[in-house]
Amino acid sequence: MASASAHFNRAVALHREAAAHVEAARVEHARQQGTAPASDGQLATYQRLAHELNSAAAQITPGWLGCPLDGRARARKLGVDARLGDVMHVDAATGLLGPRGGEVSEFAVAVPFLGIGHVAVDRDARDPRVAGWMRGLLLRSVAALPDGGLRVLPVDGATLGSLFTPFRGLVDAQVWATPATTVDRLRAVLDEAEERVAAAHGGIPHDMPYLLIAAGGLPVGAGSTEHARLAALAHAGPAARVHLLLAGYPPTGAAGFGRPPRLDHTTHLAANGDLFTVSETPADVPLDRQGGGLACPVRLADPPIDGLIEAVCHPLANAARTHTAVDFTGLMPPKIWTESSASGLRTVVGREGRAWCELALDDATPHWLVAGRTGAGKTVFLLDVLYGLTSRYSPDELALYLLDFKEGISFAEFTPTEVDGSWIPHARTVGIESDREYGLAVLRTLSREMSRRAAELKRAGVTRLVDLRANRDDVAMPRLVAVIDEFQVLFTGNDVLARQAAAALEELARKGRSYGIHLILASQTISGVEALFTKGESIFGQFPLRIALAGGGGILDASNTAADALPVGSAVVNAAAGHPDANRLVRFPNAEPAAVTTQRHRLWSARPPGDAPPAVFAGYAEHHIDTDAAYRRLTPNIRRRQALVGRAVDVGLPTVGFGLDATPGRHVAVLGTSIVGADIVHAAALSLARQHQPGTARFVVAGFAAAADPVIEHLTDTLTVAGHPCVGVDAAKLRAELAALADADTAPVTAHTYLLVFAADVATAALSHKDSTGRTGLADLRTVLHTGPGRGVHLIGWWRIARRFSEAIGGSSGREDVACLVALNVANTELAALVGDHTLTWHPRTNRALLLDRHDQRAQLIVPYVRPGRHDDPGDGTM
Ligand SMILES: Nc1ncnc2c1ncn2[C@@H]1O[C@H](COP(=O)(O)OP(=O)(O)OP(=O)(O)O)[C@@H](O)[C@H]1O
């Protein structure tokens, strides 16, 4: 092809010679007043010239570019007749050499096309000659160029797409776009081409494919704006490998409108009766020195025979499917854990056209924002990314903190489950359906780690992790990636917690990059993004890499609409904070369950010895005391006995309870109508029982609500079987018990005594009556509360009505006598008044309680222990 221009010039010279002959013949013909036929000599000259023109054309249109489009073409090799970047000529017409009406010699008219310019014909594709001609040109181009060398953007306002029907295979395989038949779609086509031209200003890679707008006719409504845009593309396109093949151009405009602009770098064919004329071409050498174009009329090139286009497109479409296919396994490296994270983390997330798309968490793009409407594939995208990362980097190089605030199981893939006990060794904490409190705890864990790293870097005399790792390979400092799905939940409420979360997030976003801490924040809603934005540009600006899935355009620049109509499995990746010029269209694969499971097992099998599963927090999960390892470890050999009540909503879900020692006030009150109150007393009693040798503690059980009976029954059975004296009492006996315990002189306490009172609010009323001496049971109760701990007597009571509890302890003056509270469904104002702290914030909710301990100033959200299945029963009276 190196001599293509020489061959073209030769053809031009021949053409000029032919033109001179035609002109001479015309003059002679006129002189003889049209009576004399062409002489034999003239005919011989035409035949010779036509032959030589055909030879010259054959040199510049090898193989598919010039061969007859008949059955023999099927045997031709595809993809070998043209090269990207070279000027490609194509057989576009048949020139007719000879006097008008006389015998003519035909020759192939090869016009310069891809790599240099455009071709336009003024009839649109409703003319069958034009339709066949266009198909032929497209077929030649597709078949001659290397596989993947041409992307066509079809436009067809003339036959509404039927022009391109034979090319359906390529459209279905997404090598070609779907034909645009409306003016809006035409505009989108022009947008894409213009973006290509704009992006090419910085130079184009040698393997960049051609982008060809092939229009069988412009759609109704296209006007001067679209014509001007086409003219601009015609002018600037070739340098960016953007070309035009237009039928119906220039269109015949309505009267009063100016003619559409002529297109630069374009060979124009214009109908003239049955034949067509050919203008000058984009080649440097003019066909005619005066710019008159081809001197003789032409017939448009013949159409391909039926079935030929399909026969060519079929293997190309199949090959394209293979080359552009993305599947989950394709994102994974052949060998796991071979990469170093010293300078950052990188993973392949999908394909950008045929090329793989790799994204990084490093100094340039330390944090990512991901957005997409529900169902757009955000969870799948995150799984692709996280499995890609955990497969490339070992747990020494990368650790994950995964937080999900929505209902869903996105991150369950990383944790052991009942059916699959494996986990991803990089996962340190996984929060599923997390509470905001848990989210804050994770952020604080990361902040602490950041401070630790800062100190270590300081000691080493460097300021960035990358510098530390460059000098020392003995430091274990994996990069930490925190993924927060539906992160905006952290900011809901605009309360203290929201402010604390925003502050923690901002600090991590600002400083994290230096210490190898990266954030990936994902959201379904624009309001999520707005929530972040309202926290100030200081956070938002730390996320230069935006990944917008369908409907996630809110994280892009306001003028950037590229994500509006994305299909599932596609994303706009933008590393310039959403600026429209920086869009990259990426397709990511579905996370097929079988492939994900295989990869998880690969990673799990390679886990380091002794690797522990991640600390999992599943917001919906019930917690039962008998499966708690901390409970099982309890023995009587304990210094300070604990009444365990649940698990803290914190990283690692630590077991929490109240120390019940001799300090005044060490009694527990559980408040709220929820039946979970009974379960908490049950759990506290069981845990205390494990800390006593049988026979060294008495359990006095009083129950005043039928709903608590099964709990009490189970409790007394368990205590009795464990060898602990356990006595059930009614209101009268409880009063007697209190009287005896209050009067230490008459009844010295010999063993630890635990008063377990279920629905104590009922007892409060019964205890308020005076006896014959004028003394009330409440007075005894208060004495026991006041002096009991010093004598090994503790009360653990469930008050369904907080006011009754307050009455029982004697109002605010008795607050110090019961230092340990667990609030269930008690209104915030009531609770705040009860404990005398108006800054307290408590939102009652299912499966949560607030633990308050006056003595160590604790206010901790907990998941209270419940009896198994408690939350399965909708009629259980829980919150
Ligand atoms: N690349 C893809 N190719 C094919 N199907 C996909 C792809 N990505 C996602 N899907 C499918 O689309 C559906 C929604 O995906 P996904 O659960 O990831 O969406 P989401 O944005 O996380 O939605 P939600 O926020 O509601 O959970 C799933 O059935 C998933 O299998």
UniProtKB/TrEMBL annotation:
<dbReference type="GO" id="GO:0003677">
    <property type="term" value="F:DNA binding"/>
</dbReference>
<feature type="binding site">
    <location>
        <begin position="372"/>
        <end position="379"/>
    </location>
    <ligand>
        <name>ATP</name>
    </ligand>
</feature>
<dbReference type="InterPro" id="IPR027417">
    <property type="entry name" value="P-loop_NTPase"/>
</dbReference>
<keyword id="KW-0547">Nucleotide-binding</keyword>
<protein>
    <submittedName>
        <fullName>Cell division protein FtsK</fullName>
    </submittedName>
</protein>
<keyword id="KW-0067">ATP-binding</keyword>
<dbReference type="InterPro" id="IPR050206">
    <property type="entry name" value="FtsK/SpoIIIE/SftA"/>
</dbReference>
<keyword id="KW-0131">Cell cycle</keyword>
<dbReference type="GO" id="GO:0005524">
    <property type="term" value="F:ATP binding"/>
</dbReference>
<keyword id="KW-0132">Cell division</keyword>
<dbReference type="GO" id="GO:0051301">
    <property type="term" value="P:cell division"/>
</dbReference>
<dbReference type="Pfam" id="PF01580">
    <property type="entry name" value="FtsK_SpoIIIE"/>
</dbReference>
<feature type="domain" description="FtsK">
    <location>
        <begin position="351"/>
        <end position="558"/>
    </location>
</feature>
<dbReference type="InterPro" id="IPR002543">
    <property type="entry name" value="FtsK_dom"/>
</dbReference>
